[in-house]
Amino acid sequence: MTNSAPRESIRVLLSEIIDYAGLFPPSEVSMAEAVLNYATYKNSNFNWMLGRFVVPVSRLDEFWDAAGDFVSRDANGWRLSVLAGEDIYDTIRKTDDFNAQHSPFVFCDTLEVRATTESKIENTVDALPEYITAYFEIPNNERLGDLVATLAFLGQRAKLRTGGVTADAFPRPQEIIRFIRTCLAANVPFKATAGLHHPLRCFRPLTYAPNAPQGTMHGFLNMFLTVGYVREGYEALILEEILEDEFEEGFEFDDDGVTWHNDYALNIDQLARLRRENIISFGSCSFDEPIADLQQIGLL
């Protein structure tokens, strides 16, 4: 059953939550299709859930060729999150040039950068224009603490890869919890990307190809709410159970907040705070799939 108006707790939790990454696997649609999709989503009843359009810096000109007519007719403008290339200085120069030519119709205000060393983070920050917010995709391994500490010192944000097109690309729940705890302890906001097509943890095909390999995928509701429960100091065992819960009956949303298994509550203010200060959004190659799943379990 579909609700005509989502509960306030759902709106607070899911507002601008999905950065559309249709150019990337497993969808990997053409630029023209991705642009048309995004324009459609922006004019849908669920546009309040839509975040930025994710595009590699190497395809910015291609994006404009496909999107120019759409964005010039959109009074609200489009915001882009740009995936940096290997040469960070070239990335920033191209982003600056793009903004100078096409603002205010479309504006690159977010940069996503892969970084495995403190020096990559420091060099990027030194070159960043003030108007760009950067998310650094860092490895979730033994170097996590040092890299998050560098991000905290420089006032930057992190990015967590939560899946992919093979089963081994999905981190274990304990690894996700370690990442969340490390970022929260250092006051480092972050976003997630990949493998979060579904609201709840599930066993599904990992791509859209026929006979695709299957695997366990993390749910974005599990993920975001776990951040809230980490904020409240719950022990690891409870956090793992929340992250691994596959049943919508466990999560009860009302206008005041959300409760898990009737005992663990997050109110509206706590939900707003975790979205504002901790987990900002997630990248997904599909916008339709999360919406359809949320409708199926009665949250939209």
Characterization of this structure:
This protein is 40% helix and 22% strand. By secondary structure, the chain is α/β, with parallel strands linked by helices. The protein has one domain (8-292): TIM Barrel (Alpha-Beta Barrel). The strands form three sheets. An eight-stranded parallel β-barrel has the order 1-2-3-4-5-6-7-13, surrounded by eight helices. α5 packs parallel to α6, α7 (173-185) packs across α8 and α8 (220-231) crosses α10. The protein is globular and about 55 Å long. The model has no long low-confidence stretch (mean pLDDT 95).
Task: Record keyword descriptors for this entry.
globular, 300 residues, 13 strands, TIM Barrel, alpha/beta
Domain module tally = 1
Tally of helical segments: 11
Q: Mind describing the biggest β-sheet?
A: 8 strands, parallel, barrel
CATH second-level architecture: Alpha-Beta Barrel
Mean pLDDT across all amino acids: 95
Encode the helix/strand succession as letters: HEHEHEHEHEHEHEEEHHEEEHEH
CATH class: Alpha Beta
Question: What is the third-level CATH name, the topology?
Answer: TIM Barrel
